[in-house]
Design a protein that fits this description.
Elements (H helix, E strand, L loop, with lengths): L1 H33 L8 E7 L4 H17 L3 E7 L5 H10 L6 E4 L2 H9 L36 E10 H6 L9 H13 L3 E3 L7 H15 L5 H7 L11 H11 L12 H10 L2 E7 L2 H8 L5 E4 L12 E4 L3 E4 L6 H11 L2 H10 L3 E2 L10 H11 L4 E3 L10 H16 L5 H15 L9
Parallel strand pairs: 1-2, 1-3, 5-6, 8-11
Antiparallel strand pairs: 3-9, 4-6, 4-7, 4-8, 4-10
Helix pairs in contact: 2-13, 7-9, 10-11, 15-16
Length: 442
Amino acid sequence: MRSRGWLVALCALLSAGAFAWAIWSYIARSEQRASPGAEAPAVKLTWYHHFREEGARKWLEIGTRKYMEAHPNVTVEVISEDGDTYANTLHNLAAVERMPDIYMTDNIQMLQEFIDAGYAMDMTGNPALTGIDPKLLGGVEGKDGKVWAVPFDRNGVGVFYNRAAFAKAGIGDIPRTWDAFLAACRKLEQAGIQPIAAGYQDMWTLNLDIQPDLIASGIRAPTWIEDVEAGRASFADDKGNFKNVLRRLADRFPYTGDDPFGTNWNEALELLASGEAAMILNGSWTVDGVRSFKPDADIGMFAFPSTNDASSSKFAMKTTGGFVVNPKSRHADEAISLVRYFSSAQMAAVMQDNKKGISIAPNAKLDFDPAYEELDREYIQAGRVLDYSAFYPEFVNVELVEAFRNELIGLLGDPRHDVDRCIAQLDAAFDRIRPRAGAKGG
């Protein structure tokens, strides 16, 4: 009995001790949480993007490093995905519910499926938008009027040219008509300079090559691509003057060098930077890409002249993409904080200096690069800008995008460059993927 009583007493003592220790531990943890100097819990954020240019990646590297220095408990993993596979990667991540905390989008159309799936945070009224001109939010607003991304720059598409190459070929003025553009190509070729650098080995560049023309020609029918994608219209309807876009693509294709489909984007940039090639048709990030090969390259930019009316030549610009925060993230507050930091005036300057993009921060100047000074002088200040924020010049469905590219390749590979045949094949390919409105079973 005495041994059993001793055991009971010991158990009671241990229980009391354990209870006291639990109470002490709870108080200690509470005090630690309440302590101003307490160490914050570790947070890891994952950020996906598709930037390939060195300056854009440096902008992200500088920004995330500075943010982590100010927030020692936060680690940011920045993952770069190839532009050709970026959309597929996000689709696959969404399918297995592994979407990143932050990701980039180029437009509200691409983002819509992720909005519907709950992977895009409603940023309407969020402090991360503080200071952004409401007029610049149209490209990230859904049809519901909600803001789904935080924009950071204005992009443009047009022609990027090497001034030294133009001078060598005796071209004094930039071409402002389609006939003048072809004449410039002939002069460049006669001077031993490749007129156009095309990096079609990276297939996204073919889509961008036609975008300046696609926008200028089709913006008066802003829903034509959306209508074709939905089966409400066909390529044969030619609502966006697409046949003429294809004819001009075929007309300038002979000036893209001996092996445009064996040339990748970086090689095309290097050709332009060195002056071996004179022009690239693409987006404003081309400036950053060229600078990564030759920082002092004498390059400029001009509007693609899709007609012979010089007065209609305007530089196409938009504000449509931006940072997207995943509301299902375990660290959504920290993700918003990081996005807000990247929207600051400090990071706007870093972006312009490195990414060579036009910041949408208030009073941002365009004197950070001579190419942008020309854009500002010749187009922005002169009111010769074509805003295409409400016009998305690409298809969204991945299968349709692939079919579209395949038929463009077929057109360029056809010695006759038969545009009518290409249009018929585009409609047939699209009809195999999605039904035409009004068709049986559609």
